[in-house]
């Protein structure tokens, strides 16, 4: 699955519509965290199995801080018995930049894949992947390279336990109750910018009347504010409850980390 297809799936806003009489019959369509992870980090290709190997598929960099850029390299070898074309090298998070370009690799030749990890705004354990795609399978990766570690820091944002890159939040689940036509319902999520660059948060919603914005509009480094989720129904709600999700744009983090889950009730 190509990157644009993954994001197209994630941006489909509607999800899980339930009523007291049809709750069991209604199939859930919202993307769970497990489903999102399977899209961002798909299974390895069975067609290209064993065609690439790595000196080490998992690199544990141990304890690190959130102020340093880490350069990490993997050595891979072509063990297919023929020339392979590496068509793409994709990281599972925008905080991980792959420096090596896709290229041809002769049989039994080696290639050093270099990357740079930015741990700003992160804390605790992490695990990110570099997916290596080849001409043997354009849909599924041939090899997965994993970077693991633990970010230690004196966390001044401990009162905002949820994180999406440099964005810290008090929660990522919102319920909007007592919705009525033409009346705006809003909920606030306390947030802060723990990074070194200003954040301008926004969101594209496919549901008319559902909006996400921040106060202040530009969140400066080290400053706190609010993410405001608001919904103004444009027509009569025919069901008692429905769910959807929004992806916060304007911050570097994985789709799962940027997701706000929303429940709307009549």
Structure description:
It is built from two helices and 20 strands. It has 266 residues and is mainly beta. The longest helix has 8 residues, at 3-10. It is globular.
Kindly summarize this structure in a few lines.
The chain is mainly beta.
On the 0 to 100 scale, the average pLDDT is: 85
Question: What general outline do the C-alpha atoms trace?
Answer: globular
What's the CATH H-level superfamily name of the largest domain? Immunoglobulins
Number of domains: 2
- In sequence order, what are the helices and strands, one letter per element? HEHEEEEEEEEEEEEEEEEEEE
Percentage of helical residues? under 10%
Q: Over the alpha carbons, how many angstroms does the gyration radius reach?
A: 21 Å
| Annotated CATH architecture of the largest domain | Sandwich
Uncertain regions spanning at least 5 consecutive residues = 1-30
Helix tally? 2
The first-level CATH class of the largest domain is given as: Mainly Beta
Strand order of the largest sheet: 3-10-9-5-7
Q: Could you tell me the CATH topology label of the largest domain.
A: Immunoglobulin-like
Main structural class: mainly beta
Describe the main β-sheet briefly. Answer: 5 strands, mixed
Percent in strands: 35-45%
Ends: how far apart? Answer: 37 Å
The count of DSSP E runs of length 2 or more, i.e. the number of strands, is 20
């Amino acid at each position: 699955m190509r990157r644009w297809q993954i994001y197209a799936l994630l941006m489909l806003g509607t999800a899980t519509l339930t009523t007291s009489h049809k709750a069991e019959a209604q199939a859930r369509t919202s993307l769970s965290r497990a489903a999102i992870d399977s899209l961002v980090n798909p299974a390895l290709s069975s067609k290209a199995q064993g065609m690439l190997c790595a000196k080490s598929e998992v690199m544990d960099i141990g304890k690190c801080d959130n102020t340093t850029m880490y350069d990490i390299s993997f050595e891979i070898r072509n063990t297919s018995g023929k020339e392979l074309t590496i068509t793409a090298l994709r990281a599972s998070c925008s905080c991980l930049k792959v420096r090596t370009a896709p290229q041809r690799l002769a049989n039994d030749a080696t290639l050093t894949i270099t990357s740079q990890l930015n741990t700003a705004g992160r804390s605790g354990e992490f695990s990110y992947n570099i997916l290596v795609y080849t001409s043997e399978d354009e849909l599924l990766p041939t090899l997965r390279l994993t970077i693991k570690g633990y970010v230690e820091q004196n966390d001044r944002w401990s009162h905002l336990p949820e994180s999406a890159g440099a964005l810290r939040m008090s929660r990522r689940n919102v319920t909007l109750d007592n919705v009525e036509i033409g009346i705006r319902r809003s909920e606030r999520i306390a947030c802060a910018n723990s990074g070194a660059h200003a954040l301008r948060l926004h969101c594209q919603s496919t549901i008319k009347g559902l909006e996400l914005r921040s106060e202040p509009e530009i969140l400066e480094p080290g400053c706190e504010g609010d993410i405001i989720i608001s919904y103004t129904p444009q027509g009569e709600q025919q069901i008692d409850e429905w769910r959807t999700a929004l992806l916060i744009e304007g911050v570097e983090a994985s789709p799962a980390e940027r997701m706000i889950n929303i429940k709307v009730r009549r």
